[in-house]
Design goal:
The protein is mostly helical and about 750 residues long. It is about 65% helix and about 0% strand.
Amino acid sequence: MIPNQHNAGAGGQQPAVFRMAVLDTDLDHIFPSSVLPPLWAKLVVGLVAVVCFARSYDGDFVFDDSEAIVNNKDLQAETPLGDLWHHDFWGSRLSSNTSHKSYRPLTVLTFRINYYLSGGFHPVGFHVVNILLHGGISVLMVDVFSVLFGGLQYTSKGRRLHLAPRASLLAALLFAVHPVHTECVAGVVGRADLLCALFFLLSFLGYCKAFRESNKEGAYSSTFWVLLSIFLGAVAMLCKEQGITVLGLNAVFDILVIGKFNVLEIVQKVLHKDKSLESPGMLRNGGLLFRMTLLTSGGAGMLYVRWRIMGTGPPAFTEVDNPASFADSMLVRAVNYNYYYSLNAWLLLCPWWLCFDWSMGCIPLIKSVSDWRVIALAALWFCLIGLICQALCSEDGHKRRILTLGLGFLVIPFLPASNLFFRVGFVVAERVLYLPSVGYCVLLTFGFGALSKHTKKKKLIAAVVLGILLINMLRCVVRSGQWRSEEQLFRSALSVCPLNAKVHYNIGKNLADKGNQTAAIRYYREAVRLNPKYVHAMNNLGNILKERNELQEAEELLSLAVRIQPDFAAAWMNLGIVQNSLKRFEAAEQSYRMAIKHRRKYPDCYYNLGRLYADLNRHVDALNAWRNATVLKPEHSLAWNNMIILLDNTGNLAQAEAVGREALELIPNDHSLMFSLANVLGKSQKYKESEALFLKAIKANPNAASYHGNLAVLYHRWGHLDLAKKHYEISLQLDPTASGTKENYGLLRRKLELMQKKDV
């Protein structure tokens, strides 16, 4: 029994049931009449979604994962939980001028829980959660698509009827296997998009439940469900900023579908000067106005709180991040923005050319109408305008509902990435298409239904649908494999974006990390050639050249980098290191000071400045610089070590001992600190304590020749000659070229020989 209850987007109960039956009949050649019940359909969709991306479960942390997870202190227990609400997605304070203003505390909280449960930075746990989230979202899509295709009809017990099981199953499968989702699922930082999508869809479904009951006037409202929907929208926004757009989608759903606002009917009445326009039914609907007030107030409140939290205003992006937004001409900006939209549409239609990054010259600007790429703009708007006209003006209520909601899901979640309201820090980003792909799947499924209705080659359409599903599944498996390691991910981008300087830079960085400096230099040079202002590539290339003792070219590159970006602190520090190696001490000191000026909390720079002062025999300045480094970074082992060694070498044994003990309290397992303090204690004739530290250091690092050599010297002084002989020999086995150890060993042997002669 179906009671007389609400049916979204149709004139009455029976026509809607009939039309949805027709749509599902049109898809009967794809799914048989004995279609799976909802529970089994969800299990199938969830299983397919998991299988598509299961290959990424044991992948590494790649690309942005390093900054958002591995280097993010907000994941560690030492950071108070309250700091998550004041930091951005990358762990920086939101009030900082360098913050990206990506406020996603709930996503970071899930990373922190992952870190705690995994016992550290073990990527498997992080990847498994992402895969399961995508599977759960795909299952939820069955219900969402059921609403979009079948409308809202409820039984007398308040249970929603599934009036389009075939259409919702097909659309959910298309969503589950779409390759454009790989970045969100296989890249751990994509969890922000997954969590946002989860709460976005829950908010939408919650809003739909506000129309389960009717009152005498036929108005449908439930304040509880509307408020819950707004709350879930706020939760979605705390996972990723895109989540707030669900309120706009709910409003469109309410006005155009629930309120049955018919643009064609309004236009016709305007043309005929119909007096009924003076009091449209929509305006007389108090429930609708109340819900719109709640949605508007909720959205405004969320935006206000978000703006207050953001602090210093919107983030500052550079031209390489989004070249079109820096174009002088408004026309050039508009043309290129629309071209970017067409590329996003193409990625949904044909997700074959996928890339982890689309910036840095990957997509050259359109600067003339003679550029053939303007055809893409025309094609995009031709299709969009046609769909919008059909969605708003069609006399078929069923068709209006599906196209309206399909376009709503396609366009509204994409708006924050459109550059219309503010500049974004990317050109094209596959991750932002996770939610818009819902709208694409609606339109594609509706298209298949319409096509099968008007053609006799139904088996051909079934084969096409099956082919799309299988090809997309295969593409997901292949692409998930590419996301398993940075080397595969970066190299896969070369064929898609060969002009992208960042692709070459990342390949070079990956090679440098593996020790292949020669190949890394080649890719860094190509990155600089493609983008002559790429300061990070110049900095990394300069570092490698410095290590290879090609100091002149390294200085030229680093000097150019700081001229292009005067506040580039790391380049200033590296320039100082090179100038120090060139014995240009005054210039080196100035470079270090510039680095500290632009990054006040820069322990590594203070450490290098201390080394410069030590070379110049400015011992007090060196100690002060190293002390600053340890204040900023208490675990800075090198700075502690250098302080101990300098105090030791200048005869300040008591002070050296005090510094060494302080350092070991902060870093108790650092064998190099144990070694340095053991040397000081040995000179102070505290042999027993010195021996214990030497042995502990050797246990931690048994193959360090100097550890055995200095322990041998301690035993030599202490009179334990047999032990001294043993450790001298071990040291020389590990490093036969150690001249000091050879000399001391020779002295010991002569002493032992003299002792033997005396005994004789």
